[in-house]
Structures are given as structure tokens and as C-alpha cells.
Write a structure and sequence with these properties.
Layout (H helix, E strand, L loop, with lengths): L4 E4 H13 L2 E2 L15 E7 L2 E6 L1 E2 L11 E3 L3 E3 L17 E3 L11 H10 L4 E4 L11 E4 L12 E7 L7 E12 L4 E6 H14 L10 E4 L3 E9 L5 E10 L5 E2 L9 E2 L12 H5 L9 E5 L10 H13 L3 E3 L26 H13 L3 E4 L7 H12 L4 E3 L2 H8 L4
Parallel strand pairs: 19-20, 19-21, 21-22
Antiparallel strand pairs: 1-9, 2-5, 3-4, 3-8, 4-6, 7-12, 9-10, 11-12, 11-18, 12-13, 13-17, 14-15, 15-16
Helix pairs in contact: 1-2, 5-8, 6-7
The structure holds zinc ion.
């Protein structure tokens, strides 16, 4: 159990501004400690997907496509028991976080605190569940993500990749049996891995639009995550996005609760086989071959995470970089495609995932088709697009993958 809930300030500051600027404020069924329900506030709610903050401003803030705007606290879950790291739900009144509390000692109210955090690039807000009004420590701003890794976890060696780092794979320690609330492994990286990650990201810097990939500054006691931003005048600058402190045994939880790490096991010897065409079609002097994994997810346990992990191991055994639809980020500027809308939980409709996944696929050098792809409309579509674009396609069969099934990192 952690002491606080942690939110990414950039996620919740706009919600607070919405509540503060709204012509009316209303919180159905809830009042604050003074019995008020009509003051600007953030509202803390909990459902099976996690803990959320939303604005109590009226009119309600919807996404362009109809979903209510809200932000989820960073938190872990023990997948076997469902135990989570978040403190238990508070009494009724504690669900209301008023924005304009006046403190006799001159402390900032919540809105001022969030504005201060944005201005000074402090990325995390920790909220204590107890609303005891005179506790000066209910809210803390932190340059780091606080106590959001499970304290009692067993840490096991793994190799992981994710889209944010461009598909390179890195050794890490993962909390055994735990994930973030969206199913991502919780990872800590040794210094050598972070240093290589920083180098790899530096190499990607000019190949992608601003903001697509971060840069890392590796210091003795922390890693600083920078992200390129473009202002209204199209001036670009690198701003500090996160600060990841080294832990007691010299590891850095880079991207924890932010980036969607995927476990891929460890690279190993070359297995040859059907993959030769892909390797031959690629100029060995160029950057490493990057492959996109296409396969079935719907209807499989855990969305076929295991199948994708095995295919990724196969790819890494060929020294290929891996990109996977399993860590696709469907968010986009502008509304969702015509006639589609986000769910109330804020997730995008299927076409948004398809678009984002196809974009990701088209950046790759080839496509690996997982067993069972024929049963997946998405994988069939990806195969057709890859074919139309003359991308090399390698169809993996279950027998070929078997060697990678139980391989331990
Ligand atoms: Zn969308």
C-alpha cells in the first residue's frame, strides 16, 4: 500500500482550469467538508479501472467525440489477487478536492499549486487520501513519481521494448506478478541499459516529428526525461518531462506508468528459416531492420500478450527491432473518425487504434504475421496493406515459434 495517489500534473491541470473557469460547479451526490457542492473542485472517483480525477465544472467537459474528460492516477495492480497500490477510498466528503481552499498559513490552494507545478515543470502531484483540512501535506508536488512501485515485489530479469524508445530492447528488472493499471510491466533499468537507451533515442532525434520520442539525460543520481514541444509560433524546445531517481540498488524506473513496456525475453542465436527474405531485402549498412508484429488479439487470453512476446523474442533473435500493435497509442489530435466516439472511460474507438497501428506498421521494414492471423480482421487488414505497399512479410508458424516459447530471459 502506498500512502498517496499520484497524478501526472499535465493530465490534471487542464481539468482544474476547467472547473475554475466554469460558470457553475456541481458534484452529484457529494459535498465537501463544509457541506458545499457548488464550489470549483476536482472530483476523485474509483472504478474497476482505477482512480480518476475529473472536473466538477458545468457544462461538463467532453472530448470532441463524447467521452467525459478525466485523468487516471498512476498505480500498480497485483494481477493474481487484484490488490492495488492505491490507498482505500475515503469518506464521502474526501472525494471532493476544492481548488480554492484558503490556508491561514499562506499555503497555496490546489489550483495555485497546479499552476505553480506547470510553470516550474514539476511533473507529479501526490494526493493523500485523508482530507484532514489542516494537514499541510495532503498535496505534494514531486519531480519524481513517488512511491508507485510495489514495495514487496520480487524483481526478475527481463528484456523489454516499447514504442516510445523506438523499438530497441533493453535488459530490466520487472516486478513479478505486478503491472500498471493498463497491464504494462513495471520495470527498473540498470545504468548501462539507460545509457544505451539514451544513445538510441539521440539517434532517432531527427527522424521523427517533434514530441514523438523523448531524450534522456543520464546523471549520477537520476535520469531526466526531455520531450520536444512546439509552441503557437512553431518554436521548438526541449522541456523536462520527468525526473527518475536512481534507487537503492542502482536502477532507474524509466517510463514507469508512462511508457508501455512489453516483455520480449532475451536476444539469442539466429534461427534462420522463413526470415531470410526479410534480412536479405534489407541493406545491412543501414539502421537495424525493424519489424511490425501483426496477429490476433481479440478473443485471446490477455489479448494474446504471450503470443506477441514469443514473436518478439523470435524477432530479437534475428537482431531485428520490434514494433507491436500491443503498445499502440491511439490518441490523436482532432476528433475521432466520423460517427465514432471515445468511451466514457476515455478510450478511443477501434478505427483510431487501426489508424495508429497502420502508421506504426508503415514505419517498419517488414511485417511478421503471428499464427492465427487469418482469424483476425485487423491482422488481415495489416497484411493487405503491407502487401499493397510491397513490404516484406514473414509468416511465422507455431512450430517455428515453439523454440522461443519457454525461453527464459
Ligand atoms: Zn479517437
Amino acid at each position: 500500500m502506498t500512502r498517496r495517489l499520484w497524478w501526472w500534473v499535465a493530465d490534471i491541470h487542464p481539468l482544474a482550469e476547467h472547473a475554475a473557469a466554469a460558470p457553475q460547479n456541481f458534484t452529484p451526490g457529494l459535498t465537501d467538508h463544509n457541506g458545499r457542492w457548488d464550489l470549483p473542485a476536482l472530483v476523485w472517483s474509483r472504478d474497476r479501472d482505477g482512480d480518476w480525477l475529473s472536473s466538477n465544472g458545468l457544462p461538463t467537459w467532453y472530448h470532441a467525440d463524447g467521452a467525459v474528460h478525466r485523468a487516471r492516477a498512476a498505480g500498480w495492480i497485483h494481477t493474481a489477487t487484484g490488490a492495488t497500490g492505491n490507498p482505500p477510498p475515503p469518506h464521502d466528503g474526501d472525494h471532493i478536492l476544492p481548488l480554492h481552499t484558503v490556508h491561514p498559513d499562506g499555503r497555496r490552494g490546489l489550483l495555485d499549486l497546479l499552476r505553480f507545478a506547470r510553470e516550474h515543470k514539476v511533473p507529479w502531484l501526490g494526493v493523500h487520501p485523508d482530507a484532514a483540512r489542516d494537514d499541510p501535506h495532503r498535496y505534494v508536488l514531486s519531480p519524481t513519481q513517488g512511491d508507485v512501485l510495489p514495495p514487496d515485489a520480487t524483481w526478475v530479469p527481463v528484456t523489454v521494448t516499447c514504442g516510445t524508445v523506438g523499438g530497441g530492447s533493453y535488459p530490466a528488472l520487472a516486478a513479478h506478478g505486478y503491472t500498471t493499471r493498463d497491464g504494462t510491466p513495471l520495470c527498473r533499468f540498470p545504468r548501462e541499459a539507460v545509457t544505451r537507451m539514451a544513445r538510441d533515442l539521440e539517434a532517432l532525434r531527427y527522424d521523427y516529428p517533434p514530441g514523438e520520442h523523448p531524450l534522456l539525460g543520464v546523471l549520477d543520481d537520476c535520469v531526466i526525461v526531455y520531450r520536444e514541444q512546439e509552441d503557437d509560433d512553431e518554436n521548438r524546445r526541449w522541456v523536462e518531462e520527468d525526473r527518475v531517481p536512481v534507487d537503492a540498488d542502482g536502477h532507474f524506473p524509466v517510463g514507469a506508468h508512462q511508457w508501455r513496456w512489453i516483455e520480449v525475453g532475451a536476444p539469442s542465436g539466429n534461427s534462420g528459416g522463413a526470415a531470410a527474405s526479410l534480412t536479405e531485402s534489407h541493406d545491412p549498412a543501414a539502421a537495424p531492420t525493424t519489424v511490425y508484429l501483426a496477429g490476433p488479439m481479440t478473443g485471446y487470453p490477455d489479448f494474446n500478450r504471450q503470443g506477441f512476446a514469443v514473436a518478439a523474442r523470435y524477432a530479437l533473435a534475428h537482431d531485428w527491432k520490434v514494433r507491436s500493435p500491443q503498445d499502440t497509442d491511439p490518441t490523436h489530435t482532432g476528433p475521432c473518425p466520423d460517427g465514432e466516439r471515445q468511451t466514457t472511460a476515455g478510450s478511443h474507438p477501434h478505427p483510431c487504434w487501426v489508424r495508429a497501428s497502420l502508421r506504426k506498421m508503415l514505419d517498419c521494414d517488414g511485417v511478421l504475421l503471428l499464427p492465427g492471423w487469418q482469424q483476425s480482421a485487423g491482422a488481415r487488414l495489416e497484411r493487405a496493406v503491407a502487401e499493397g505497399c510491397a513490404m516484406p512479410i514473414v509468416e511465422l508458424d507455431a512450430g517455428e515459434l515453439a523454440a522461443f516459447q519457454d525461453r527464459q530471459p
